[in-house]
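The following block was generated as part of the benchmark described in Methods. Ligand: MF3.
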Amino acid sequence: MAITVKTKREIELMRESCRLLADVFQNLEQAVKPGISTMEINILGDRLIRQHGCIPNFYHYNGYPASICVSVNDEVVHGIPRKNHILQEGDIVSLDAGLIYEGYHSDMARTFGVGQINEEAAKLIQVTRQSFFEGIKMARAGNHLYEISNAIDAYVRPFGYGIVRDLVGHGIGTHLHEDPQIPNFAQSRRGPRLKPGMTLAVEPMINMGRPEVEWLDDDWTVVTEDGSWSAHYENTILITEGDPEILTLYES
Ligand code: MF3
Ligand code: CO
């Protein structure tokens, strides 16, 4: 499948889809506190998405049973919400969600600390976030896609963290996952040329220890092989004639 270039009208719909999703995240972040269950976070997120008149795009995606992915500590992504999984002070929790507005998908993820977290965990979250911003400095028309991948890798490597290789970012639009795939580690090729109107979900997943991950028996939850903690930071972005536009941006 070729990489889709969105029309002006499609870009407006993408912008609105992403704006609504960022609003959902702002509310979810407030709810992240010791004592809440991962299922309660999912129920809240599902309700907020539907209150906007939108559809949670993760729900029943390839059989995924919830609307919000909630991944705690050594869970990297795709954690399944459970009513008996209660967040504890000091945990880190990655929330990943998306919605469909007028047929257009948005997708974003953040890792939050639960109450007071230790310094190493806070640093992992901060470096993961910054790796996204380092990557998208290269997200400019005329550049090649893997310049984003290379920039993320170059920034993260000196910290000694493990960059997850088995999961990647992606194009997004009328489908949650469109071409191209966007690795978060250095590539030997340069990849396709970026054009204004492309919309991409850039999403580094970074482990405190080794990069290897494995799948739990639920067939969804991805965990680090070495048990180290993991962070995730994702936005849907638009390639423009100038600086990339971060469509799901919000800062807490
Ligand atoms: N959030 C993932 C991504 O960023 C997709 C999750 S699919 C689900 O590409 F089924 F797990 F929800
Ligand atoms: Co994504």
